[in-house]
């Protein structure tokens, strides 16, 4: 919990005392690899902060192919915003890639935090805009960047993930086949 309180205090520029006071609104959940936080058709009711471990958010198309949108390693937050804020059924899965300790934050947590520290609202807006910006960049990359460019960006975004997930998951995130990812990695090694 201390790590979370430090991270939220830093992210939202809120005094640690306020963050600690609001922590009564948090549930800690320890999950095993493969356990779900969200499945298609369910409404996402919470935001997930990864204290330890690794989560992923993905969809499965009508042909059974998996498409990973996000990974969430330690100190990352993961949520289906459309489902949470528009109260609509999700199209996504969120599950644990490895055993994880996750802090489950209800919308009331952020409301309670804002009531006790009004400046948090402006900081949340900045973070939301950064999130939208990163999603736009990801869409642009999927539409126009080469597989090599996407892979290099993946390594920058998730520097410690490659060793923690199977290669097929990285390929799914990049929108390429595992065989193509192997070729990209070999080509990068050859260039160095």
Automatic annotation (TrEMBL):
Pfam families, per the entry: cNMP_binding
InterPro entries recorded: cNMP-bd_dom, cNMP-bd_dom_sf, RmlC-like_jellyroll
Coiled coil regions, renumbered to chain: none
Domain of life where this protein originates: Bacteria
All copies of domain Cyclic nucleotide-binding, residue ranges: 24-113
Protein name: Cyclic nucleotide-binding domain protein
Native source species: Cloacibacterium normanense
